[in-house]
Amino acid sequence: MQMLDGKLASAAVKKQLQEKVLAHISQGKRAPHLAAILVGSNGASETYVASKVKNCEEIGFESTLIRLDEKVTEVELLAHIEQLNNNEGIDGILVQLPLPKHIKEQAVIEAIHPSKDVDGFHPINAGKLMQGMDCFIPATPYGVVLLLQHYGIETKGKHAVVLGRSNIVGRPMSILLSNASATGNCTVTLCHRNTENLASITQQADILVAAIGIPEFVTADMVKPDAVIIDVGITRVVDTTKKSGFAIKGDVKFNEVAPKASFITPVPGGVGLMTIAGLLTNTLKAYEQNSVTVG
Prior knowledge:
Blueprint (H helix, E strand, L loop, with lengths): L1 E2 L2 H21 L6 E7 L3 H17 L2 E7 L5 H12 L6 E4 L9 H7 L11 H8 L8 H13 L7 E5 L6 H9 L8 E5 L6 H5 L4 E4 L17 E4 L3 E4 L7 E4 L4 H4 L5 E2 L6 H20 L5
Parallel strand pairs: 1-11, 2-3, 2-4, 5-6, 5-7, 7-8, 8-11
Antiparallel strand pairs: 9-10
Helix pairs in contact: 1-6, 1-10, 6-7, 6-10
């Protein structure tokens, strides 16, 4: 079994991005600029956004964090997004999810201009992805692709099973794995909560992507020997033995499944770090498409 280390893979991606940023700045251009909007004070969201801002700084990106009260209205939030859409100095926009219940997430996603949609959630980018066109790929599936590339995982002709059908991970992941590409050409089965005889399907998977959002859902008896296991799940589970009061669990029961796998991602330290790498790669792409020079 070999660990698919997101820390090593993301460091390699960030080094490449940093070199590209330095090259642009040496030509008199400004640095890429990512703007993030955080609504409320959700602990997990605070952690995710702080990590994104830190990673921007590490590779030479500018970043702006806009904090809004949890009681902000949808209209007010959309107005902030429109200001960022119209700001030529902003290349990428992300609104950290989840949002308070009184705000419609889809309205917020569609308000971000597709050319600045570095999370890859806008319907225009989703449609382009479906048709194999150039677009911004959702950051988590993109991060998985970058991870597969880094470790040279063979995908051609393999049977990939994706657990979860969300628009953020499951659906786009199934498209990427089936695409005619270096990290595609799989035969893909997409499963969800209504899939019957689920274990009999996952047992056929050469590549298993778990994005179902249930801690330790995938157990050893559900996995084919020597399968590649990609664990997208990340859930805070109460753990009174830890100072923080919680433990981070993936969708895969790691200690059981790891001995059977050829490759497996840890949680934390796996796909989460690659999600940020995907986001940063999208932001540089948006910047290069904007092609705005200093002055």
